[in-house]
Design a protein that fits this description.
Oligomer: heterotetramer
CATH superfamily of chain B: LigB-like
Low-confidence stretches of chain B: none
Mean pLDDT of chain B: 97
Largest sheet of chain B: 8 strands, mixed
CATH class of chain B: Alpha Beta
Bound molecules: fe (iii) ion
Distance between the termini of chain A: 24 Å
Number of helices of chain A: 10
CATH architecture of chain B: 3-Layer(aba) Sandwich
Number of strands of chain A: 0
Strand content of chain A: under 5%
Helix content of chain A: 55-70%
Largest interface: A-B, 58 and 44 residues
Low-confidence stretches of chain A: none
Order of helices and strands of chain A: HHHHHHHHHH
Largest sheet of chain A: none
Number of strands of chain B: 11
Shape of chain A: flat
Helix content of chain B: 25-40%
Strand content of chain B: 15-25%
Chain lengths: 133, 282, 282, 133
């Protein structure tokens, strides 16, 4: 197996982590382009006025659009969204990375913040699915 | 001739920018974050230390570059760069003035040294570049030095290897050493340290690994430049990969360096904040 | 596995596109230009030769890339690319369909092989890419193969060295050889040969130099890959530098190749038209 | 002298040739950006309707604007224009590279074409100012 395949195989073994590879980049191209459109104030205004209508202009799958409307960030990562792009969505919602991160971990914002104040999620047990370490 | 004696690294967490922009430096949450920069803020404004120009190695976070175009290494050559609107309006910080002669000189030398640079003249700069300026220089009306932005892709895989980043640093140094103007140049590497912003593993912090990384900036750079991507991802979270940008900085310094200052604090938002100031040992 | 046996080079003079688009192939001016492609047009459509995908090395002529962003090497990874409007409307030629899996595979391997590629998904393609398709394939309703566009900066200096371009070709070859799909892949290098489009020296042609360059594609590649930029500029005109893109093609072939066909004609507009078809010698 | 300086020095020794270096790229930035704007049909229309007015929006020097209006391509090369960008101007005028090249060489289009048909401008005597070869 070549370096590229080896690396991508190893990366898949990391729990709770989605690498933004070519496959994801192709699948999520329009999720990410849509997300970036929210960097312009005039687009944020249109988006806030009618989210569904705003999405009509973007060639995303129904599944991708639903995940955007539901702010289901884990699903969006699976469908090709990248977190720095998706950040434009939750920023437009007035939410921070801490809010989005809590949601993706399934924790309440308070619990997540407490975990961070206590030193963050430990690496022990979070390195490898296969090795369970 | 231009002279490069100092390298600085620091995290570029967006929340630190928010803290500064909202004057919340003394809040209990922010106080220990900013305290670690007091030393550097004093040190850097002394006439003998103040840089004329900083080569600021950062990554764009889907601000200037969309999926339409993804350069591996881009160097900003325009006269100035505007703070980006990342979704809540641009940060209220000064425009970033480049040193275009130095920037072009470095770009030219890098390309002739087999680095396949992208030259960029239109690039709004996001927190990756402006937060480091804030933590070093606080809130001046204009930044006290010129800034050559050097953007590294760490978002879309594959990103450049640590070793490639190190060699880029070495080549930058050769270019700066050959720049025919009396200029005090610093190089900054930004991003990191351990953090993961995505998925069920978000919030990962690995203080032990980070501290060893800080130690080995002076003690074992051979180890650092060979760290494979998979180790950054596993041990430091998916966004810990930003530390390859520290290697560009370190590669531009002498083999032997002295640590002048260090700051490490958890958390800043989702991130382990790291900061180090290094000086060439003559 | 993918297989790369053939490399083709040809000039990409805009006027040749005009000649084809206006059906003037039999005009006395155009007839000797197109005659030299008759052999290739026959050869390339034979089932055993027809490529499934072509990696087409070309340069953008201020069509997709303005001075806002200037990548040294960019590889197109989108599903398709539209012909550019170069000032008189887009050429009436089919849309260019990529082989995105191959493109991404090559891009990934190149970056892991220390080529600092720019990945590009939005890129109108100009005569640099479409004229070679026209001279090889004439006027089909759709191009008979997929095309991976690989753009090289030869406009804003410094441009990559011949040696760097050669090594890019070698790395492309390794990537293609490792692509896990039965695919007949060709690589094309375009641009050149001697021409100068600017200033009082415009119209320069150096047939002797060009012929030696064509000869040494089979006879002395060590010489070719070491030709310094200044020699291209002096001897072949300022736009002769485009021949570094032939070196990407040649670097992707085996050390030993056989010349299957050659065509050389002066003038095509301001340019010495060159064309060569090369086959790996097993 | 380093490789970069050596190369740029040597390039300046080539007669009748302007290399598009960083200095030129900086000086001519807006000439080239203006030129590229003519790739859009709607801009070509505006440009044809009133060239001077169209130029008002571009932060070029008076000298650069005059050279554009005069189609003085040699002057534009000196002022930082690059020929592939300038091509958008003469393409919009309906002229080809052969027309522009003739103009830059100071030859009539007919003489220039005849020179090309006869094998082009010889390299002999056109290599180096210093060496005169
Ligand atoms: Fe970052
Ligand atoms: Fe060309």
């Amino acid at each position: 197996m070549n370096r590229r395949d080896t690396f991508f195989r190893q990366a898949e073994d990391i729990p709770g982590t989605t690498l933004f590879t070519s496959g994801k980049a192709r699948q999520g191209y329009w999720i990410n382009q849509f997300s970036m459109s929210l960097m312009k104030p005039e687009n944020r205004k249109k988006w806030r006025a009618d989210e569904k209508k705003y999405l009509e202009d973007w060639p995303m799958t129904a599944e991708q659009k639903d995940a955007v409307l539901a702010r289901d960030y884990n699903r969006l990562l699976e469908l090709g969204g990248n977190i720095y792009y998706l950040a434009k969505i939750f920023s437009t919602d007035g939410l921070s990375f801490v809010h989005a991160a809590s949601a993706m971990t399934g924790m309440s914002v308070e619990d997540y913040k407490a975990m961070m104040m206590a030193g963050g999620r430990p690496v022990e047990g979070n390195r490898s699915i296969r090795e369970g370490n | 001739m231009a002279d490069l004696q100092y390298g600085i690294a620091c995290s570029h967490v967006p929340l630190i920018g928010v803290g500064a922009d909202q004057n919340r430096e003394d809040d209990p949450y922010f106080a220990p974050i900013f305290a670690g920069f007091d030393w550097t803020r004093q040190w850097i404004m002394k006439p003998e230390n103040r840089p004329d120009a900083v080569i600021l190695v950062f990554n764009d976070h889907a601000s200037a570059f969309s999926q339409e175009i993804i350069p591996t290494f881009a160097i900003g050559c325009a006269d100035e760069f505007q703070p980006a609107d990342e979704g809540w309006g641009p940060r209220p910080v000064p425009v970033v003035k480049n040193h275009p002669e130095l920037a072009w000189h470095v770009a030219e030398n890098l390309i002739m040294d087999d680095f396949d640079m992208t030259i960029v003249n239109d690039m709004p700069v996001d927190h990756g570049l402006t937060v480091p300026l804030t933590v070093m220089f606080n809130k001046p009306d204009s930044w006290p030095c010129r800034v050559v932005p050097l953007m590294v892709n760490v978002v879309t895989y594959p990103v450049p290897s640590g070793e490639r980043c190190w060699k880029l640093g070495e080549s930058i140094r050769r270019a700066v050493d050959g720049f025919n103007e009396d200029l005090n140049v610093q190089i900054w590497g930004t991003g990191g340290m351990s953090h993961q912003l995505q998925g069920p593993r978000a919030g990962l912090i690995n203080a032990e690994w980070d501290r060893k990384f800080l130690d080995d900036m002076t003690e074992d750079t051979d180890r650092l430049r060979k760290i494979p991507h998979i180790e950054y991802l596993r041990e430091t979270g998916s966004e810990g990969i930003e530390m390859v940008m520290w290697l560009v900085m370190r590669g531009a310094l002498d083999p032997q360096v002295k640590e002048l200052h260090r700051h490490y604090h958890v958390p800043a938002s989702n991130t382990a904040l790291g900061h180090i100031v290094l000086e060439n040992v003559q």
